[in-house]
Amino acid sequence: MSTTARDLAARALDLPEAERLALASELIDSVEGPADPEWERAWIEELARRKARGAVDARPWSEVRARILQRLGSP
């Protein structure tokens, strides 16, 4: 890790928890890259299995993420 990255990490670790979580989420979003069709297919199959078992109270990640960030007081 470069000196700049180490300095940024040290400064980020001094942030309040909610801000660290928001920052981590932004960083992850920035490197996820294109979706993997095989991974998506596997998740669709898993979701179908869960639905068949009665676990139908699923929510989209964008909705869940927004709710978590709101509870943490992030923008």
**Any idea what the shape is?**
flat
| Residue share in β-strands | under 5%
Helix content: over 70%
DSSP strand count: 0
User: Structural class given helices, strands, pairing?
Assistant: mainly alpha
Show unreliable segments: none
Biggest sheet record: none
* Average pLDDT figure: 87
How many helix segments? 4
Q: How far apart are the termini?
A: 29 Å
Integer tally of domains: 1
**Secondary-structure element series:** HHHH
**Rg on CA atoms, Å:** 17 Å
Write up this protein.
This protein has 75 residues and is mostly helical. It has one domain. 71% of the residues lie in helices and 0% in strands. The chain contains 4 helices and no strands. The chain has helices spanning 3-13, 17-31, 37-52, 61-71. The longest helix has 16 residues, at 37-52. The radius of gyration is 17 Å and the shape is flat. It starts with a helix and ends with a helix.
Please sum up the structure shown.
Helix content is about 70%, strand content about 0%. The chain is mostly helical and about 80 residues long.
Give the topology.
Blueprint: H1 3-13, H2 17-31, H3 37-52, H4 61-71
Which features would summarize this protein structure in a list?
mainly alpha, flat, 75 residues
